[in-house]
Amino acid sequence: MAAPMLRGCCLARRGALACIDGGSRHGRGAAIGCRSSGKRGRSSVAQQPLITAQKSGKGEHAWAAVVGLEIHAQISSNSKLFSGSQVQFAAPPNSLVSFFDASLPGTLPVLNRRCVEAAVMTGLALKCHINKKSLFDRKHYFYADLPAGYQITQQRLPIAVNGSLEYSVCVGKKRSQVITRTARIKQIQLEQDSGKSLHDELRSQTLIDLNRAGVGLLEVVLEPDMSCGEEAATAVRELQLILQALGTSQANMAEGQLRVDANISVHHPGEPLGVRTEVKNLNSARFLARAIDSEIERQINELENGREILNETRSFDCKLGFMPEPNLPPLLLYDTASLPPGADPQQVINIDRIREQLPELPSETREQLVQQYGMLPEHSFTILNEVGLLEFFQNVIKETRAEPKKVTSWILNNFLGFLKQQNLAVNESPVTPSALAELLNLLDRKAISSSAAKQVFEELWRSKGKTPSQIVSEKQLELMQDGEALNQVCLAVMEEHPQVVLAMKRGNPRAINKLIGLVRKATLSRADPTVIKEILEKKLSS
Amino acid sequence: MLGRTLREVSAALKQGQITPTELCQKCLSLIKKTKFLNAYITVSEEVALKQAEESEKRYKKGHSLGDLDGIPIAVKDNFSTSGIETTCASNMLKGYVPPYNATVVQKLLDQGAVLMGKTNLDEFAMGSGSTDGVFGPVKNPWSYSKQYREKTKHKAHGENEDSNWLITGGSSGGSAAAVATFTCFAALGSDTGGSTRNPAAHCGVVGFKPSYGLVSRHGLIPLVNSMDVPGILTRCVDDAAIVLGMLAGHDPKDSTTVQDPVKPFTLPSLTDVSKLCIGIPKEYLTPELSSEVQSLWSKAANLFESEGAKVIEVSLPHTSYSIVCYHVLCTSEVASNMARFDGLEYGHRCDIDVSTEAMYAATRREGFNDVVRGRILSGNFFLLKENYENYFIKAQKVRRLIANDFVNVFNSGVDVLLTPTTLREAVPYQEFIKEDNRTRSAQDDIFTQAVNMAGLPAVSVPVALSNQGLPVGLQFIGRAFHDQQLLTVAKWFEKQVQFPVTQLQELMDDCSSVFEIEKLASVNFC
């Protein structure tokens, strides 16, 4: 996979899906790097035409796709990048607009310290070099939702450069092998968000909401190191987890806090890169991979049909002028060594201090899960990818004596499966961590059988508020602890089914299972199958 | 009373010789009498009277806020004033009433100053004549002075006198005229390439441009952010120092202001200039310089020398590139700064609504005059990706060389540079408009705009009347953030030259009280 090609990538993608099937009996577990993994299966729709394109092409002449990303993450801060207006999602239109945000003449930008710290922290987490001096520029364009006629950004000298983002994909025959990929980060820059335009086609009006205008953004530029939609989506998901762990962005795509532009080209391996096109404003995890793959497919189709790829955005780009922002002096950062003596801590930002505050990153959390709980690496990805699942897992672990592996298996197979079936998020689950922990405790001390446990679990889902113990006693699901009584049931079953007993004596190995099943049924699943088996074997051999 | 300086009238207020309301009313009545000069775009009579009333209450209680309490001031109409229309003399902002005060305006009001009104200018401060605003040109009060009339009596005869009036210079011509006609005791101008110093020189008042970063630009509607500074126009150097003391210092709303706190100060009276080194830049001796101004310049140099100062010729070798460099940087920033005027959030909006783009185009076509549009066009050309390196980047490099010229001169031991402010005295309007705005700006900013590129403090001090009876100013340029030293030298010089007061009796015969204390001071300088 050193030279990622489309063909290989498609396999890898199916692999990523298959990997979940292998790891989860419900087959609805989260694909690595995918938030709404339940729907991920649908993205195979997108890969279908790619294969067709390959088939129709010259078989030996495979296409390779090259995907780079520009990711805009809204900084999680109380106020905007250059003004004191509040930042809040879904506030009434134009209710969070300062004089500066509306570009009233004479207003000036004042840099928000919190946004700078968020940028530095994100840069450090992504292994970037932090520039101790960075500059702000104006990027001009006439959009109604850009009140000043320019965006303040960091074109020439951004705050962080030359980092990397590691993300993982599943490969191998059983798709259980986790391979780490790296996308290089060209730069991270601070910039302003724009407002929103609402076009009223009927009355041919444009309505402007400036609530978002001036909100701080981190633009993370990923080099074209990805080769398909799935890889891009996985990288974006990893970045999202990192931002959320850092608290530098809520990175909620549905609320537009994370938006992705992809630049895409295809070429034959060994040949120069093709002409790139841009797919802008991918603001849903679901469509990200699909949109990129569709564009790859479109480009391949164009080229195979002898047409050219045209870059519509490029010609427009050269008209956009940049200029240094004269109202903001260079942004200077310090480390402990370069900190000017007697500097007001409110006026300076110390990179080393921010480094000390870095929280545990998702990769470290996953490593921890693998080390501490013997979790399979691919399972650690699932645990982190599902919003709230890690916390749920940790809370269950805290309250149960059950083996961590058992907990993992229950959470990934039963719990997650149920959530997906009902299309619920973890925090919407009717089953609390305590309830699941109690259930696993009952199972652990063999108070109930595992099939009874599943019954209890289903019941928990239906009857909110009941504890597992209540359900067990209501439904009389306790394991039969009385050996003599079980002995009697076994005898009775054997007498009722002489043919099965006969078949077994004749050496049919499956017959004993039938008897076990019958005994369990007679005990309403309250007997431990291994104990039943022991009793039956003893009786048959005597 | 009106003819007094700010310091004098402040003392009179404290002593109760006059009340703030009386003072305000006198100024208002003078504003009405001089209305034809077109110095004010908006006269904020009601606000002024209310402020004066409040000031009067404070004085009665003995709680005066300080030297500025009750002092009538005027503000150039490109500073944002809360609740008072701020037009930039442009159709684009006609009717625009800002919701906030510029920091400098707020500081003056916090000191109890009484805002008389908003003064006229070239549209968006783009010009050197105060002739290119949508409210018409400002007339230089010296056009009507006894001094000028006597000298030109024979010439003016037979001609239409009204067409013979002189320009004020600009772009802060309204502020300069307001101070020169005693309708206020200090006025704010702005200075991007000489816009405060130039009209100050033409109107015979002191025009001070502080160091870049010393005074907040928040609320000053920008021309060129990296060069703009609020300017101060007063009738003497001491007054400029008082106002500077109130305005200077860090503003959290302007990131380019100095961090260190600045304390108000009183200028010392120099008695000995023998430790001073005055630099005379040889490149400023241009062929276009009028012989009269040149001769006053050299007399000034001789004055310093005769009083024991060291006067040396210095070189600012990149001076000749300054104007063209300024043009590129100025228009580029203008193009950028003017982009916000799209008719959406505020200001003029056209009636066309077929599309957003059509609305933008028509709004800007109707809102800006030719000068503004021309500069936007040039600026956008320089900012084009393919031109950026060749023009903007190059101009920035030249700007650095020009700034370094000054650094080198000051490092060689020079304390203050002495130069002319303008090539000649004010010219008649009819003469002035024979050339276009761009040509005039390039000519008139020649001695002033390099200072803006270097961010240095500079002050124009009126020196003497020309043969025509018109004021001539000379400029002192100081080291960055040595504004106080600069003003101290200027104050000494001002005292030596004893510039005469305008005699406007013929113009305002019933305003004799204004001039009761004045006498035609002997021009012992010449």
From TrEMBL, chain A:
Alphabetized InterPro entries for the sequence: Asn/Gln-tRNA_amidoTrfase_suB/E, Asn/Gln-tRNA_Trfase_suB/E_cat, Asn/Gln_amidotransferase, Asn/Gln_tRNA_amidoTrase-B-like, GatB, GatB_Yqey_C_2, Gln-tRNA_amidoTrfase_suB_CS, Gln_synth/guanido_kin_cat_dom
Catalytic activity: L-glutamyl-tRNA(Gln) + L-glutamine + ATP + H2O = L-glutaminyl-tRNA(Gln) + L-glutamate + ADP + phosphate + H(+); L-aspartyl-tRNA(Asn) + L-glutamine + ATP + H2O = L-asparaginyl-tRNA(Asn) + L-glutamate + ADP + phosphate + 2 H(+)
Task performed by this protein: Allows the formation of correctly charged Gln-tRNA(Gln) through the transamidation of misacylated Glu-tRNA(Gln) in the mitochondria. The reaction takes place in the presence of glutamine and ATP through an activated gamma-phospho-Glu-tRNA(Gln).
Subunit structure: Subunit of the heterotrimeric GatCAB amidotransferase (AdT) complex, composed of A (QRSL1), B (GATB) and C (GATC) subunits.
Organism name: Canis lupus familiaris (Dog)
UniProt-listed HAMAP family: GatB
Entry superkingdom: Eukaryota
Protein name as it appears in the record: Glutamyl-tRNA(Gln) amidotransferase subunit B, mitochondrial
GO biological process, one term: mitochondrial translation
Location of the protein in the cell: Mitochondrion
Record GO terms (molecular function): ATP binding; glutaminyl-tRNA synthase (glutamine-hydrolyzing) activity
One Gene Ontology term, aspect cellular component: glutamyl-tRNA(Gln) amidotransferase complex
Designated gene of the protein: GATB
Any Pfam family the entry gives: GatB_Yqey
UniProtKB/TrEMBL annotation, chain B:
Catalytic activity: L-glutamyl-tRNA(Gln) + L-glutamine + ATP + H2O = L-glutaminyl-tRNA(Gln) + L-glutamate + ADP + phosphate + H(+)
Source organism, top-level taxon: Eukaryota
Alphabetized GO MF terms: ATP binding; glutaminyl-tRNA synthase (glutamine-hydrolyzing) activity
Annotated Amidase domain residues: 25-145, 166-487
Keywords, alphabetical: ATP-binding, Ligase, Mitochondrion, Nucleotide-binding, Protein biosynthesis
GO biological process: glutaminyl-tRNAGln biosynthesis via transamidation; mitochondrial translation; regulation of protein stability
Enzyme class, spelled out: ligase
Catalytic site: K76 (charge relay system), S171 (charge relay system), S195 (acyl-ester intermediate)
Record has Nucleotide-binding as a keyword: yes
Coiled-coil ranges from the UniProt annotation: none
UniProt-annotated location(s): Mitochondrion
One Pfam family hit: Amidase
Record flagged with keyword Ribosomal protein: no
Quaternary context: Subunit of the heterotrimeric GatCAB amidotransferase (AdT) complex, composed of A (QRSL1), B (GATB) and C (GATC) subunits.
Family recorded in the similarity comment: Belongs to the amidase family. GatA subfamily.
UniProt name for this protein: Glutamyl-tRNA(Gln) amidotransferase subunit A, mitochondrial
